[in-house]
Amino acid sequence: MTRPTPDSAVDSPATRPGPAAVTRKRSSARAAGLRTPSWVGWLFVAPALGVYAVFVLRPIALTVQYSMYRWDGIGPSTWTGLGNYVRVFTDPDLFASILNAVKLIVFFSVIPVVLGLAIASTIRRIATSRLALVARTVLFLPQVIPLVAAGIAWSWLMSSTGLVNQLLTYAGLGGVARAWLGDFSTALPAVGVIGAWVLLGLCTILLLSGMSKIDPALYEAARMDGAGPLREFVSITVPSLRQEIGVCVTVTVIAALASFDIVYVSTQGGPGNATMVPGLEIYYLAFSERQVGMASALAVVLMVLVLLVALPIQWLTKDKSS
């Protein structure tokens, strides 16, 4: 009887690696061969980063640079340092434009979000009826209409002989009628009403889509406990829409602070400076008064103001469980 040689001992079934071990070795070898360097991922995002740097970061950097100079956009510039920024906060007209934008937040943000919650909750309850589809369509129409067209239409409606005043006269309130966009005391609220009308549909649709993700079992359990519609709304609907409300508030606040189209078409900042906002003031400073440095400083202040308002909203409304 011959003894097994070393080679035959290695190849024997007792010493041969099993299928699982062979599979693990092949998988590790394949993974080692397919492992790519970390810098390869940056190659895929490089085009997007390049576009972002050229069309976003570079204009921001140039705006900050121009804000340090007194410049008409053509001739030589003069270094002023922070002088333009000081003027933004000390010039009554420039600072008033910022205050007007802050006041518009009530109309552009608070009213659309609050009414959007109420309307979306109502539509959710009648979701199976045709009226819900009609309501969604009608409310979303302002998002399809260009803002310029909306501004022109509302200018006609709010004129001294417009439909608004005609309805007031028919209702016996002719003494209240006025040129709403031409009166110093009502021009800014009138512009705010236009903005609220435009943004109401967007907020309603966003909130309605968020409500569709809420588990119906929560409402059934609340009804079994004796909760009414108001209690369901406060205890279930609103807390479940934390992120959707955050998106609505962020979008509408930015729309108020950076408003331009509606104001330019409807009032052009008038009467006087009653409806002047930073976006329109920047346009006039840069292209009418040729004060590019001053316009750049106001633009930087507006950008910082938007960030100071939007970032805390995002932090407060983000999902804490994620």
UniProtKB/TrEMBL annotation:
Topology term for the membrane: Multi-pass membrane protein
Keywords for the protein's UniProt record, in alphabetical order: Cell membrane, Membrane, Transmembrane, Transmembrane helix, Transport
Start and end residues of each ABC transmembrane type-1 domain: 98-313
Disordered: region residues: 1-22
PROSITE patterns noted in UniProt: ABC_TM1
Membrane spanning residue stretches: 39-61, 94-119, 131-157, 187-208, 245-266, 294-316
Family matches, as SUPFAM superfamilies: MetI-like
Top-level taxon of origin: Bacteria
Protein location: Cell membrane
Family of the protein in this entry: Belongs to the binding-protein-dependent transport system permease family.
Entry-linked PANTHER family: BLL4140 PROTEIN, DIACETYLCHITOBIOSE UPTAKE SYSTEM PERMEASE PROTEIN DASB
Protein name, as recorded: Sugar ABC transporter permease
